[in-house]
Amino acid sequence: MCLDEPTAGVAQREAEAFGPLIKRIQRELDATFVVVEHDLPLIMSISDRIYCLEAGAVIACGEPESVRSDPLVVASYLGTDDRAIQRSNADANPAVV
Q1: What confidence tens digit (pLDDT) does each residue in 19-70 have?
Q2: Dist. CA 33–CA 45, nearest whole Å
Q3: Among candidates 11, 5, 24, 20, which has minimal Cα distance to 90?
Q4: What average pLDDT does the segment 75-86 reach?
């Protein structure tokens, strides 16, 4: 199943509930999901493998932890603002499971 920005325009509370819903559907259907999303806590919480693109080129791929700490990903997606970097940590956001 392919989802393109599934939480765009969705209230924060509903967006936070989306991760567990995707995981449940994935388990029940034994399905593979391809999700294009800018909500980093959501992506980190639901993904087994992540591909990050910049200007149409893959700049990193792998397990969430390795991609999250990749310097190219940090610079491209989060910049140098520590608040943005900390927000990308799904473990720091208890509402996202």
Answers
A1: 999 999 999 999 999 999 988 889 999 999 999 999 999 999 999 999 988 9
A2: 13
A3: 20
A4: 70
- Give the length of the chain: 97
Written as one letter, the residue type at 34 is: V
Specify the residue for token string 């603002």: 81
Q: CA 94 to CA 80: how far, in whole Å?
A: 23
| Residue 12: count of CB within 10 angstroms of its CB | 10
* pLDDT for the residue numbered 82: 67
- Whether 72 and 60 have beta carbons less than 8 Å apart is answered as yes
Q: Which residues pair with 13 in a beta bridge?
A: none
Q: Which of 76, 81, 47, 80 is nearest to 64 (CA)?
A: 47
Instruction: Report residue 41 as tokens.
Output: 């806590």
C-beta separation of 7 from 18 below 8 A: yes
pLDDT for res 87: 65
